[in-house]
């Protein structure tokens, strides 16, 4: 029974890393302050604002030279990676799943280099079986094709699980391919008319619930 895993804000605290890094972007020349840091975090929109667009927003807000655009894009893409870390308890739960023989596949949207740097920094590259990153394809979650590629990469038949924090990209997208789904709520309320298979507030809680479900079904 393969387990497909979202990366940002599911296994790793992407928003926390970006928020902690954001003050470093501003310097004396820009004149940025705490309000500008707050603005950047909001404008980032959990990473869903395209980096090209966010760079143009920064140029306009701070009257920067247009020639700074490409450098800003690179900074927005890669510099916060140095602040990335796993959520508490995630690694031990993933290792427990691997010890059970569960193949783990990370299925993530984003820039391929950026996401691979996160996998290397956190050591996830040593735990998972494979990765499917939208930056390597012409489509992204919630497109059903990306989940099918991940399931084929896992190399196991039967039902797959998908764990993620994004309702549409992760949970609805995987659900349409027949996956069981586990939602990391981060304290949010579920608002859809249908329900995921499992819900818990914290990533490690969700992974533990999935592990217990797999154990129960395997024992039958």
Overall average residue pLDDT? 94
Order of SSEs, N→C? EHHHHHEHEHEHEEH
Multimerization state: single chain
Number of helices: 9
Strand content: 5-15%
Radius of gyration: 18 Å
C-alpha end-to-end distance: 14 Å
Instruction: State the helical fraction.
Output: 40-55%
Unreliable spans: none
**Main sheet?**
6 strands, parallel
Structure summary, number of beta strands: 6
Structural class: alpha/beta
* Spatial arrangement of strands, main beta sheet: 3-2-1-4-5-6
* Outline type: elongated
Structure report:
This protein is α/β, with parallel strands linked by helices and 220 residues long. It has nine helices and six strands. The chain has a six-stranded parallel beta sheet with strand order 3-2-1-4-5-6, with helices on both faces. Strand 4, helix 8 (167-175) and strand 5 (180-184) form a beta-alpha-beta unit. The longest helix is centred in the last third of the chain and has 17 residues, at 203-219. The chain is elongated and about 65 Å long. The model has no long low-confidence stretch (mean pLDDT 94).
